[in-house]
Amino acid sequence: MRRALTGLALGLALALAIVSTLSATPAPPAAGSVRAAAVSLDLNYSDPASDVFTMWTSNGTHVTDASGYWIMSPSPGVVNLIRLGSSDAGTSVNLYLKVQTTIASRPNVTYDIRMYSRADNRTHYIFEYSNGRALLTQNQTTAPQVNMTANVTVGTSAFTVTVAKSLFGGPTNITAWNLDATAKEFAGNYTYEDFVWQQPGNPGSAPAFIQGRVTDMADGAGLSNVNVSTGAGGYFTTTNATGYYSLPAAPGTFNLTFGLSGYDALTKSVTVQYQQTQTVNAALSKTSSLGSYAVWIAATVIVLAAVVLLVVLVRRRKKRSSPPAQ
Predict the structure, then answer these.
(1) pLDDT by residue (tens digit) across 212-244?
(2) I want to staple 313 with a disulfide (CB 3.0 to 4.6 A). Which of 4, 8, 94, 245 is the partner?
(3) Is residue 46 located within the same domain as residue 191?
(4) Greater model confidence, 268 or 45
(5) 47 lies in the same domain as 189
(6) 221 shares a domain with 172
(7) What Cα–Cα distance (Å) separates residue 255 from each residue in 130, 216, 230, 252?
(8) Does 61 or 19 have the greater pLDDT score?
(9) Residue 305: domain span
(10) Rounded CA separation 184/192 (Å)
(11) pTM for this predicted structure
Protein backbone atom coordinates (compact mmCIF):
# COMPACT_ATOMS: atom_id res chain seq x y z
CA MET A 1 0.00 0.00 0.00
CA ARG A 2 2.88 2.35 0.83
CA ARG A 3 4.35 1.83 -2.63
CA ALA A 4 1.00 2.55 -4.20
CA LEU A 5 0.64 5.81 -2.29
CA THR A 6 4.18 6.78 -3.23
CA GLY A 7 3.38 6.13 -6.90
CA LEU A 8 0.22 8.21 -6.66
CA ALA A 9 2.12 11.08 -5.04
CA LEU A 10 4.75 10.98 -7.77
CA GLY A 11 2.04 10.98 -10.43
CA LEU A 12 0.28 13.97 -8.92
CA ALA A 13 3.57 15.83 -8.58
CA LEU A 14 4.34 15.12 -12.23
CA ALA A 15 0.89 16.37 -13.25
CA LEU A 16 1.29 19.60 -11.31
CA ALA A 17 4.75 20.15 -12.77
CA ILE A 18 3.44 19.71 -16.32
CA VAL A 19 0.50 22.04 -15.67
CA SER A 20 2.71 24.76 -14.27
CA THR A 21 5.15 24.42 -17.17
CA LEU A 22 2.50 24.50 -19.89
CA SER A 23 0.31 27.21 -18.43
CA ALA A 24 3.03 29.57 -17.26
CA THR A 25 3.13 32.88 -19.15
CA PRO A 26 6.67 33.68 -20.35
CA ALA A 27 8.08 36.57 -18.39
CA PRO A 28 8.78 39.64 -20.51
CA PRO A 29 12.47 40.44 -21.01
CA ALA A 30 13.80 42.76 -18.40
CA ALA A 31 14.34 46.27 -19.72
CA GLY A 32 17.98 47.21 -19.84
CA SER A 33 18.94 49.69 -17.18
CA VAL A 34 21.80 52.10 -17.38
CA ARG A 35 22.90 54.17 -14.44
CA ALA A 36 22.43 57.86 -15.07
CA ALA A 37 25.99 58.49 -13.98
CA ALA A 38 27.20 56.28 -16.82
CA VAL A 39 25.42 58.28 -19.51
CA SER A 40 27.54 60.77 -21.42
CA LEU A 41 25.76 64.02 -22.21
CA ASP A 42 28.82 65.52 -23.92
CA LEU A 43 28.04 64.70 -27.55
CA ASN A 44 29.06 66.47 -30.76
CA TYR A 45 27.95 65.61 -34.28
CA SER A 46 29.37 67.40 -37.30
CA ASP A 47 27.81 67.74 -40.72
CA PRO A 48 30.23 69.54 -43.03
CA ALA A 49 28.54 68.40 -46.26
CA SER A 50 25.97 70.51 -48.05
CA ASP A 51 23.27 67.86 -48.03
CA VAL A 52 20.30 70.18 -48.29
CA PHE A 53 17.61 68.65 -50.46
CA THR A 54 14.88 70.34 -52.44
CA MET A 55 11.42 68.90 -51.85
CA TRP A 56 7.91 69.73 -52.98
CA THR A 57 6.05 71.23 -50.06
CA SER A 58 2.74 69.81 -51.34
CA ASN A 59 3.46 66.10 -50.98
CA GLY A 60 7.07 65.73 -49.82
CA THR A 61 8.27 64.19 -53.11
CA HIS A 62 11.84 64.97 -54.07
CA VAL A 63 12.41 67.07 -57.15
CA THR A 64 14.67 65.25 -59.60
CA ASP A 65 16.45 66.11 -62.81
CA ALA A 66 16.09 64.29 -66.14
CA SER A 67 18.41 61.51 -64.92
CA GLY A 68 16.43 60.93 -61.75
CA TYR A 69 18.95 62.51 -59.36
CA TRP A 70 17.71 64.69 -56.54
CA ILE A 71 18.12 68.40 -57.23
CA MET A 72 20.02 70.19 -54.51
CA SER A 73 18.80 73.44 -53.07
CA PRO A 74 19.60 76.49 -55.22
CA SER A 75 21.33 77.82 -52.12
CA PRO A 76 22.80 74.76 -50.34
CA GLY A 77 24.01 76.84 -47.41
CA VAL A 78 20.67 78.38 -46.55
CA VAL A 79 19.76 75.97 -43.76
CA ASN A 80 22.84 73.78 -43.79
CA LEU A 81 23.52 72.42 -40.30
CA ILE A 82 27.19 72.46 -39.38
CA ARG A 83 27.27 71.09 -35.85
CA LEU A 84 25.01 69.78 -33.13
CA GLY A 85 26.18 69.32 -29.57
CA SER A 86 25.16 68.85 -25.95
CA SER A 87 26.95 69.07 -22.63
CA ASP A 88 26.21 68.25 -19.02
CA ALA A 89 26.02 71.35 -16.85
CA GLY A 90 25.17 69.95 -13.44
CA THR A 91 21.40 69.95 -13.11
CA SER A 92 20.79 70.99 -16.73
CA VAL A 93 21.72 70.01 -20.27
CA ASN A 94 23.09 72.61 -22.68
CA LEU A 95 22.18 72.07 -26.34
CA TYR A 96 24.11 73.80 -29.11
CA LEU A 97 23.24 74.07 -32.80
CA LYS A 98 25.25 75.84 -35.48
CA VAL A 99 24.21 76.54 -39.06
CA GLN A 100 25.91 78.08 -42.07
CA THR A 101 23.55 81.04 -42.27
CA THR A 102 22.16 83.46 -39.70
CA ILE A 103 19.63 81.84 -37.37
CA ALA A 104 17.94 84.89 -35.89
CA SER A 105 17.17 86.82 -39.08
CA ARG A 106 15.74 84.09 -41.31
CA PRO A 107 11.92 83.83 -41.24
CA ASN A 108 9.98 80.62 -41.95
CA VAL A 109 12.84 78.43 -40.76
CA THR A 110 12.31 75.72 -38.15
CA TYR A 111 15.07 73.96 -36.21
CA ASP A 112 14.21 70.74 -34.36
CA ILE A 113 16.52 68.95 -31.96
CA ARG A 114 15.33 65.52 -30.82
CA MET A 115 16.66 64.22 -27.52
CA TYR A 116 16.50 60.51 -26.63
CA SER A 117 16.80 60.14 -22.87
CA ARG A 118 15.53 56.60 -22.18
CA ALA A 119 17.14 53.25 -22.91
CA ASP A 120 13.82 51.78 -24.05
CA ASN A 121 13.22 54.72 -26.45
CA ARG A 122 9.58 54.89 -25.42
CA THR A 123 9.58 58.67 -25.41
CA HIS A 124 11.81 61.33 -26.81
CA TYR A 125 11.83 65.10 -26.45
CA ILE A 126 11.70 67.64 -29.26
CA PHE A 127 13.15 71.12 -28.90
CA GLU A 128 11.79 73.38 -31.65
CA TYR A 129 12.97 76.88 -32.49
CA SER A 130 11.20 78.98 -35.10
CA ASN A 131 10.83 82.74 -35.67
CA GLY A 132 12.21 83.64 -32.27
CA ARG A 133 10.05 81.20 -30.28
CA ALA A 134 11.26 77.97 -28.66
CA LEU A 135 9.14 75.04 -27.43
CA LEU A 136 9.92 71.73 -25.78
CA THR A 137 7.53 68.83 -26.40
CA GLN A 138 7.42 65.03 -26.24
CA ASN A 139 6.62 62.69 -29.07
CA GLN A 140 3.53 61.58 -27.12
CA THR A 141 0.49 63.61 -28.09
CA THR A 142 -0.66 64.03 -24.49
CA ALA A 143 2.55 65.73 -23.33
CA PRO A 144 2.23 69.48 -22.70
CA GLN A 145 4.42 72.03 -24.47
CA VAL A 146 6.96 73.98 -22.44
CA ASN A 147 7.91 77.47 -23.60
CA MET A 148 11.72 77.59 -23.70
CA THR A 149 12.17 80.97 -25.37
CA ALA A 150 13.69 82.52 -22.25
CA ASN A 151 16.25 79.70 -22.10
CA VAL A 152 17.66 80.36 -25.58
CA THR A 153 20.72 82.41 -26.41
CA VAL A 154 20.83 83.34 -30.11
CA GLY A 155 24.08 84.19 -31.84
CA THR A 156 24.96 85.06 -35.41
CA SER A 157 24.86 81.51 -36.72
CA ALA A 158 24.20 79.42 -33.63
CA PHE A 159 22.03 79.16 -30.59
CA THR A 160 22.32 77.44 -27.23
CA VAL A 161 19.49 76.38 -24.99
CA THR A 162 19.56 75.21 -21.38
CA VAL A 163 17.13 72.37 -20.65
CA ALA A 164 16.55 71.49 -16.99
CA LYS A 165 16.91 67.78 -16.24
CA SER A 166 13.70 67.98 -14.24
CA LEU A 167 11.86 68.23 -17.58
CA PHE A 168 13.04 64.69 -18.31
CA GLY A 169 11.65 63.50 -14.98
CA GLY A 170 14.90 64.15 -13.10
CA PRO A 171 18.55 63.19 -13.69
CA THR A 172 18.05 59.55 -12.71
CA ASN A 173 15.47 59.11 -15.49
CA ILE A 174 18.08 59.84 -18.16
CA THR A 175 19.13 56.28 -18.98
CA ALA A 176 20.46 56.96 -22.47
CA TRP A 177 21.41 60.04 -24.45
CA ASN A 178 21.35 60.61 -28.15
CA LEU A 179 20.52 63.50 -30.45
CA ASP A 180 19.54 64.42 -33.94
CA ALA A 181 18.48 67.68 -35.57
CA THR A 182 16.55 68.93 -38.57
CA ALA A 183 16.64 72.37 -40.17
CA LYS A 184 13.79 73.21 -42.53
CA GLU A 185 12.96 76.33 -44.50
CA PHE A 186 9.62 76.89 -46.24
CA ALA A 187 10.35 78.94 -49.35
CA GLY A 188 7.99 79.32 -52.28
CA ASN A 189 7.17 76.01 -53.93
CA TYR A 190 9.84 74.03 -52.12
CA THR A 191 10.94 73.05 -48.67
CA TYR A 192 14.67 72.93 -47.95
CA GLU A 193 15.74 70.35 -45.36
CA ASP A 194 18.96 69.32 -43.70
CA PHE A 195 19.75 66.69 -41.05
CA VAL A 196 22.39 65.96 -38.45
CA TRP A 197 22.42 62.55 -36.79
CA GLN A 198 24.63 59.92 -35.19
CA GLN A 199 24.50 56.57 -36.93
CA PRO A 200 23.88 53.95 -35.65
CA GLY A 201 22.20 54.36 -32.28
CA ASN A 202 19.44 52.87 -30.21
CA PRO A 203 17.79 54.78 -28.86
CA GLY A 204 19.21 57.30 -31.21
CA SER A 205 19.02 59.45 -34.17
CA ALA A 206 18.55 58.09 -37.62
CA PRO A 207 17.62 59.49 -41.01
CA ALA A 208 14.43 57.38 -41.17
CA PHE A 209 11.40 56.80 -38.96
CA ILE A 210 8.75 54.11 -38.56
CA GLN A 211 5.54 55.09 -36.83
CA GLY A 212 2.00 53.84 -36.40
CA ARG A 213 -0.70 52.66 -34.04
CA VAL A 214 -1.40 49.23 -32.54
CA THR A 215 -5.02 48.34 -31.79
CA ASP A 216 -7.16 45.47 -30.55
CA MET A 217 -8.62 43.70 -33.58
CA ALA A 218 -11.90 43.07 -31.75
CA ASP A 219 -12.85 46.64 -30.83
CA GLY A 220 -10.22 48.90 -32.42
CA ALA A 221 -9.03 50.28 -29.07
CA GLY A 222 -5.41 51.39 -28.83
CA LEU A 223 -3.09 48.99 -27.00
CA SER A 224 -0.44 50.37 -24.67
CA ASN A 225 2.95 48.85 -23.79
CA VAL A 226 3.11 46.79 -26.97
CA ASN A 227 6.71 45.82 -27.73
CA VAL A 228 7.65 47.01 -31.23
CA SER A 229 11.01 45.84 -32.53
CA THR A 230 12.84 45.42 -35.81
CA GLY A 231 14.95 42.45 -34.74
CA ALA A 232 17.81 43.15 -37.14
CA GLY A 233 19.44 46.43 -36.23
CA GLY A 234 18.17 46.32 -32.66
CA TYR A 235 15.64 49.14 -32.93
CA PHE A 236 12.81 48.83 -30.42
CA THR A 237 10.20 50.82 -28.56
CA THR A 238 6.79 50.42 -26.88
CA THR A 239 3.44 52.00 -27.63
CA ASN A 240 2.13 54.86 -25.54
CA ALA A 241 -1.17 55.01 -23.62
CA THR A 242 -3.23 55.34 -26.80
CA GLY A 243 -1.35 52.74 -28.85
CA TYR A 244 0.93 55.02 -30.89
CA TYR A 245 4.66 54.48 -31.37
CA SER A 246 7.54 56.27 -33.11
CA LEU A 247 10.67 54.31 -33.95
CA PRO A 248 13.85 55.82 -35.41
CA ALA A 249 15.76 53.43 -37.67
CA ALA A 250 18.42 53.31 -40.33
CA PRO A 251 17.25 52.99 -43.93
CA GLY A 252 16.57 49.36 -44.87
CA THR A 253 14.04 46.54 -44.82
CA PHE A 254 12.92 45.20 -41.45
CA ASN A 255 10.57 42.59 -40.05
CA LEU A 256 8.63 44.70 -37.58
CA THR A 257 7.32 42.54 -34.72
CA PHE A 258 4.48 43.55 -32.38
CA GLY A 259 4.14 41.63 -29.10
CA LEU A 260 1.93 41.96 -26.03
CA SER A 261 1.07 39.44 -23.33
CA GLY A 262 -2.35 37.93 -23.97
CA TYR A 263 -2.22 38.64 -27.72
CA ASP A 264 -0.83 36.74 -30.69
CA ALA A 265 2.42 38.23 -31.95
CA LEU A 266 2.31 39.86 -35.38
CA THR A 267 5.16 40.53 -37.81
CA LYS A 268 5.05 42.95 -40.74
CA SER A 269 7.73 43.74 -43.30
CA VAL A 270 8.59 47.40 -43.82
CA THR A 271 11.10 49.16 -46.07
CA VAL A 272 12.10 52.67 -45.09
CA GLN A 273 14.37 54.97 -47.07
CA TYR A 274 16.54 57.94 -46.26
CA GLN A 275 14.53 60.99 -45.11
CA GLN A 276 11.37 58.88 -45.10
CA THR A 277 8.77 58.11 -42.46
CA GLN A 278 6.80 54.89 -42.95
CA THR A 279 3.49 54.33 -41.19
CA VAL A 280 2.87 50.73 -40.11
CA ASN A 281 -0.33 50.05 -38.18
CA ALA A 282 -1.13 46.71 -36.56
CA ALA A 283 -4.25 45.03 -35.17
CA LEU A 284 -3.57 42.27 -32.65
CA SER A 285 -5.86 39.34 -31.85
CA LYS A 286 -6.26 38.00 -28.33
CA THR A 287 -4.62 34.64 -27.74
CA SER A 288 -7.08 31.73 -28.08
CA SER A 289 -8.11 30.00 -24.83
CA LEU A 290 -7.94 26.57 -26.50
CA GLY A 291 -4.35 26.26 -25.39
CA SER A 292 -5.27 26.56 -21.71
CA TYR A 293 -8.07 24.00 -22.15
CA ALA A 294 -5.60 21.58 -23.66
CA VAL A 295 -3.31 22.02 -20.67
CA TRP A 296 -6.04 21.15 -18.19
CA ILE A 297 -7.24 18.20 -20.28
CA ALA A 298 -3.70 16.82 -20.30
CA ALA A 299 -3.44 17.31 -16.55
CA THR A 300 -6.78 15.54 -15.99
CA VAL A 301 -5.65 12.57 -18.07
CA ILE A 302 -2.44 12.29 -16.07
CA VAL A 303 -4.30 12.42 -12.74
CA LEU A 304 -6.84 9.80 -13.88
CA ALA A 305 -4.01 7.56 -15.07
CA ALA A 306 -2.41 7.87 -11.64
CA VAL A 307 -5.71 6.95 -9.92
CA VAL A 308 -6.19 3.93 -12.19
CA LEU A 309 -2.64 2.82 -11.42
CA LEU A 310 -3.36 3.13 -7.70
CA VAL A 311 -6.55 1.06 -8.01
CA VAL A 312 -4.73 -1.67 -9.94
CA LEU A 313 -1.93 -1.82 -7.38
CA VAL A 314 -4.38 -1.97 -4.47
CA ARG A 315 -6.35 -4.81 -6.09
CA ARG A 316 -3.18 -6.77 -6.78
CA ARG A 317 -2.05 -6.34 -3.21
CA LYS A 318 -5.45 -7.52 -1.88
CA LYS A 319 -5.39 -10.52 -4.20
CA ARG A 320 -1.94 -11.55 -3.00
CA SER A 321 -2.85 -11.15 0.68
CA SER A 322 -6.16 -13.08 0.42
CA PRO A 323 -5.98 -16.61 2.04
CA PRO A 324 -6.27 -19.52 -0.36
CA ALA A 325 -9.71 -21.03 -0.68
CA GLN A 326 -10.29 -24.20 1.45
Answers:
(1) 899 999 999 999 989 998 876 567 778 888 888
(2) 4
(3) yes
(4) 268
(5) yes
(6) no
(7) 37, 20, 6, 10
(8) 61
(9) 2-24+288-321
(10) 5
(11) 0.54
